[in-house]
Amino acid sequence: MKSLALLLFLSASIAGCGSVPRDPDGTLERVRSTHGFRVGLIADAGGPAGDSEVAAFIAGVSRATGARPIVRRGASEPLLLDLEAGRLDLVLGPISPKSPWADEVAILRPIAEPVAPQHLVVTPIARNGENRWIMLLEREADRVAGGGR
Amino acid sequence: MSGLDTVPAPIREDMKRAIRLEWFNVGFTLSIIVVMGLVLGNSQTMKTAWIEDALGLIPPIVFLVASHFERKKATRDYRYGFHRVHSLAFLIAAVALASVGAFLLKDSVMTLVSREHATVGTIHLFGHGFWLGWLMIAAQIYSIVPPLVIGHLELPVSERMQDEVLHTDAKMNKANWQTGAAGIAGIVGLGMGWWWADASAAAFISIGIISDGWKALRVAAAELVDGMPRELGSTRLDPEAKRLLKKLQEQYPGADIRLRETGRYIHAEVCGVDPDRRQDIEALWPGEPERSWRLAQLSFVPPDQD
Description:
The structure holds two protein chains of two kinds.
Chain A: H1 2-16, H2 27-34, E1 36-42, H3 47-65, E2 68-74, H4 76-84, E3 90-95, E4 105-107, E5 114-115, E6 120-127, H5 131-145
Parallel strand pairs in A: 1-2, 1-3
Antiparallel strand pairs in A: 3-6, 4-6, 5-6
Chain B: H1 12-38, H2 44-55, H3 58-70, H4 84-113, E1 122-125, E2 128-131, H5 132-161, H6 164-192, H7 197-224, H8 239-251, E3 256-262, E4 265-271, H9 281-284, E5 295-301
Parallel strand pairs in B: 4-5
Antiparallel strand pairs in B: 1-2, 3-4
């Protein structure tokens, strides 16, 4: 019972500090301190359906972190492997929530309309568990999807 | 014989109280399943806790079913009555408890081995974005309180009623609130960036749950194969049954005395002597008189029929 009280006290104390959640691998901290974040664009991420949203999203993340994007394009598989291994901080592209990658990476809310013919949507994808970084990306995704620039 | 067809008078009030507690238990557990289901997110710990809460429904439901049957009189097809339904219910509850422990251990070990980092993102409420972890902690706190209170109330009732199903349910409630506490530790750990915190806490707690479940399984199996009555919540022989055995051995030297348990009741068989019509079953009980209802039947097997 004492340990339960201690646990609740600990939760309340943590609730009082604003830096929760933290990233296990410190992604957001590193992005802010190095002033750079590494983005992978899946080859067909842009196109008429998603170009402006992708640009607006990356610009928003850049503004929010004070960091410059380091962008490279490629096929989805190698980019997602790099993301999982921590060689990329963010991947943008069309992905299905039912993709086998869905358990390995964090697929966030879409930022653009469906891309024909598979009706996939352009979505930011982050490393699993980097929750502070993910919250920032989600905020920017909501802003772009909501029409804000 | 008294106590065979109906619930004995000394535990009737306790039986009513236990049934009320179990209905509360079912109601609160259902509400916890709904609340937890709303904030599950991607957290494996939360999913595990949710499945455990669902499994936690098994002991109170089997208790309610068993107590319903226990109150029924013997029928043409079930001439011994339905006391053994309790033994069956106990086995089911024991399997549920052991399964919860095994499930929790497997899940937490897999999380640790695969170095799984749980993603817990943002939820929008009242126009503001919050970290979903805070809602998960609130849901976990809600999920801790009912099993903590109900389990605490069940324990003394289960002891007075000598009810293994209720006792196992009290253990299940303990398992549920401890898992909830581990879940809070896990979410707090995630918030601090310690991805391993929840799985480690859950693995630690699962060992105690598996031990309780394994113990309950052994006792349930002993009961179903007509082993000597066991102490409530333990694999040790029941001290009241041991005293009864000694008393019967003194009264019928040379006879083969057999004791077995059906649900909360003890059945005694004296083999190798003619029926003793002067025997008073209540006076024979070696423990406290208010628990003499436990000895439900005393049978004699004459020497030529043994």
